């Protein structure tokens, strides 16, 4: 499973931080940080999701009010949102 985080879309409400500890707060910039990710395109950060974190990652994606977090399954299908 894979997660993508769109920093430009993020409005810094930090619900994701409460759901999955891979997300932390950049309060100066009003954005979340996806720890351990690489910037794959401009403002798009991505990483693999460890199996034991899949549930937390899904909750983080579901709770984001602006859909800045996208989850893909192992076949590359978008499953959230
Ligand atoms: S919940 Fe969404 S908008 Fe809020 S900090 Fe996380 S990614 Fe950004």
From TrEMBL:
At the highest ranks, the source species' classification is: Archaea, Methanobacteriati, Methanobacteriota, Stenosarchaea group, Halobacteria
Superkingdom of this protein's organism: Archaea
Q: Which GO terms describe its molecular function?
A: iron-sulfur cluster binding; metal ion binding
Entry keyword set: Electron transport, Iron, Iron-sulfur, Metal-binding, Transport
Q: What is this protein called?
A: Ferredoxin
Q: Which organism is it from?
A: Natrarchaeobius chitinivorans
Q: Does the keyword Iron-sulfur apply?
A: yes
Question: Pfam families in the record, alphabetically?
Answer: Fer4_15
């Amino acid at each position: 499973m894979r997660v993508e985080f769109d920093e430009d879309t993020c409005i810094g409400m930090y619900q994701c931080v409460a759901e999955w500890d891979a997300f932390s707060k950049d309060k100066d910039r009003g954005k979340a940080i996806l720890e351990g990710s690489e910037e794959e395109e401009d403002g798009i950060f991505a990483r693999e999701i460890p199996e034991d974190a899949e549930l937390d990652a899904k909750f983080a994606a579901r709770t984001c009010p602006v859909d800045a977090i996208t989850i893909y399954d192992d076949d590359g299908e978008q499953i959230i949102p």
